[in-house]
Amino acid sequence: MTTTQNTAVHTAAGTATDADPGVPKRRPFIDKEHPDVQKALVKASTASRTASKGAGLGDDTIELVNMRVSQINGCLTCLSLHAPRARAAGVTQQQLDVLPAWRDAMTVYSGVQRAALLIAESLTVIDTSQDRDAIVAQASAHLTTEQIAAVEWTAVMINAFNRVSIASGHPALAAKG
User: Fold this and answer.
1) 3-state secondary structure 66-122
2) Residue among 77, 97, 101, 74 nearest 172 (CA)
């Protein structure tokens, strides 16, 4: 391999080379590079959780939304953070185990949880062929307007955190115990 080929391989892999010292050795932790933006995101997330609880949503439902959105997005860090939180909030192991197939697990989730998961998925995988009004109408059989808005904010927030962690290449969090 020539020096030029070697430089190209290392640059493509994201490692710095002597030829281009400005190339980062790894993806930057964008939350650390711009902490004021991260603080604003955390503040918005805290307000979202307060709104969810004020609307009468339980931590179990909030954490199921966080888990499902993180599964869809493939966010290693957020999954490692929210799985223990979900269990602490009363989400059963069975609910976690079958979460990717929640639509088929009719008796595993409450109507509120199913409605919240429906909304969360619709805001995570944006499909222009989906009728969002129909989704909200379906969810309204189990959720109030205030709860629907709170679930939507929860989905928006976890999607944002997923993207921060994925962009940064954050690792899984170590299990506590």
Assistant:
1) HHHHHHHHCCHHHHHHHHHHHHHCCCCHHHHHCHHHHHHCCCCCCHHHHHHHHHHHH
2) 77
| Token code pair at residue 102 | 């929640």
Contacts of 38 (CB under 8 A, 6+ apart): 30, 31, 32, 164
Those residues whose C-beta lies under 8 Å from the C-beta of residue 37, and which sit 6 or more positions away, are: 30, 31
- Directed axis angle between helix 132-139 and helix 111-124, to 10°? 160
Residue 25's pLDDT is what?
A: 81
> Exposed, middle or buried: residue 13 (CB in 10 Å: 0-12, 13-18, 19+)?
exposed
8 Å CB contact between 176 and 84: yes
**Residue whose pair of structure tokens reads 């979460």 in the numeric block:** 99
3-state helix vs strand vs coil in the chain, percent to 5: 65, 0, 30
Mean pLDDT of 150-167: 98
Structure confidence by residue, pLDDT tens digits, 44-83 = 999 999 999 999 999 999 999 999 999 999 999 999 999 9
| Number of other residues whose CB lies within 10 A of the CB of residue 15 | 12
**Residue partners of 48: CB distance under 8 A and separation at least 6:** 150, 153, 154, 156, 157
Mean pLDDT (the chain, rounded):
90
Residue that has been written with the tokens 């888990």 in this structure: 67
